[in-house]
Amino acid sequence: KAGVTQTPRYLIKTRGQQVTLSCSPISGHRSVSWYQQTPGQGLQFLFEYFSETQRNKGNFPGRFSGRQFSNSRSEMNVSTLELGDSALYLCASSLRLPGLNTGELFFGEGSRLTVL
Amino acid sequence: DAKTTQPTSMDCAEGRAANLPCNHSTISGNEYVYWYRQIHSQGPQYIIHGLKNNETNEMASLIITEDRKSSTLILPHATLRDTAVYYCFQMNYGGSQGNLIFGKGTKLSVKP
What we know:
The structure holds 2 protein chains of 2 kinds. Chain A is mainly beta. Helix content of chain A is 0%, strand content 52%. In chain A, strands 2, 4, 5, 6, 9, 10 and 11 form a 7-stranded mixed sheet that branches. Chain A has a 4-stranded antiparallel sheet with strand order 1-3-8-7, with no helix packed on it. By secondary structure, chain B is an all-beta fold. Helices cover 0% and strands 46% of the residues of chain B. Chain B is built from no helices and 9 strands. Chain B has strands spanning 9-13, 18-23, 31-38, 45-50, 55-56, 61-64, 70-75, 84-92, 106-111. A 5-stranded mixed sheet of chain B has the order 1-9-8-3-4, with no helix packed on it.
């Protein structure tokens, strides 16, 4: 069974540009969440999607956005990149259903973004 | 801020048991305790979770105190491949993963 796939794995952008990251969850998983990981702040929650609906959003500026498609694949976008956006962006999928279970999270390898 | 507190780092001799503590004094009745680990440059990996009873799987054992304010993850026979950062966190049953807050974790170094 294929794991969570994130693309691209590495990318370099310059300030002011925008970036789109992609996440393909494990087959059958409808819940997808995104996290930003930096050495200083650790792992921080960005958003959570279930059945194409954003269920919750972390405390990040509006430059960070995301969406989920009908096949559960998800994308996140960061516009007007800043140096501080350099981080490992992790996606996780799960069988976790709202109010029904505590499905474990399966993380991808992440997309490492460097902003110059 | 993370709701859990863990030691910053720990060392363990290869082949010995690694006992990683976690304090979660504000845990509520419907919140589970989860443990994940992250090996360098990889995504976090699920280890185990529990509500109030001790749990064991092929990777580890989880001991939760009776008052549920703390827990200990036990790796019974640590190997060099267990060197990683271990995160403990609390997450409510069926709730949004916006409640998922990883702290800084414990960096476990398994030494030969």
